[in-house]
Write a structure and sequence with these properties.
Length: about 110
Amino acid sequence: METLHEIIPFAKEMMSQKPSRGMVKVYAVGTVLAFFGVVIGLVETICRSFSPREPIDEELERLIAREHRLQKHKEIEIELTETSAATEAGAVSKQQLAAVQRNTANRLHAS
């Protein structure tokens, strides 16, 4: 039943055969479910065009999060090497170095 033109003759034929109430209910429920499926499909298609980005599946999302963590870890290592080089030169105090080390500990646990 691809078009509305096929549904009307089908309904007339079904009524001429005098189906039982149970069969009418089954056809009615099937028709309602099919209608809701079409409506939901149309709404999904329309709403998808307004979504800001494509949906990301879980594996891709995990991979992106992992890359962000690795990037942050590299940045922290660079900061530590810079601060250790600065402490060797005597430019940074031990308190500032301890604050940077505490910062890295907090960042590694946050996820």
